[in-house]
Amino acid sequence: MPQGRIAKELKELIAGLSTKYLTPNFQPHVTLIGELYLPKDKVLSGTKELARKIEPFEITLGEVSYLEEYYRCVFIRACKTKILMNAHAAACGVFMLTPTGKYMPHLSLMYGNLSSQTKQQIIQDIGYKMDIKFLAAEIHIYYTGGDPEGWYQVAKMHCGCRTS
Q: Where in the sequence is the domain holding 152, given as residue range(s)?
């Protein structure tokens, strides 16, 4: 999750879009892996292990795009850097998931079922490209059951933490 000024600006953009288009409001984030159906203690211990394995790294956001998917309605693509892709692979390894090769790192700006024309207009209004860089220094664990506005943070752990 971005921090500081970048987080504030992205939160404001997401909130503004959600108000204008009546879509869910949520915290800006780039997902490493999702949909873990494990007990909380397993998620916490696995995330602690993952946090020890990866050092803080920079995430670069660029092209604004959309898909015909609820959770990737409008988003900013994250550059598939070696370190980001290695972090995803490490997360899959810790939680014994098989990487599918379909991981598309991104930061969602909107969730919803909007028409392609509406999404294209939104992108035209906000811009086709953003040059945003931020340090990914923490892993945030969120409970994501139900409506996105009801999601909440369970824990966060600092990357590169070598202590137990």
A: 4-158
